[in-house]
Amino acid sequence: MDTILLSPNDNIIVLTKSLQEGAVVRIGDVDYRLPSALGLGHKLAAKPIRAGEKILKYGAQIGSATRDIAAGEHVHLHNIQSDYLPTYTLELGREFHAAT
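Below the sequence we write its predicted structure tokens.
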């Protein structure tokens, strides 16, 4: 098994191992081909998620979708924001400075 649904209420599934670009992941009865390699623990949308909808993992809210996310799409910092902590991304050549 390449993925796991941690709670029946979750709208994401979690990879149980690293997968290469082009790997096929089955969600329900639909197959999705990964457009890029993803590592262990990364999340995929188990169903379409609308912008602003809460992301549920372990049945708990871990953040909100910043845009519509298609079923089978990678769910990560590029399309969710934490409801609890600021989200930081690093750009090449820039130092990390946390906001105060």
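The longest strand covers residues 60-65.
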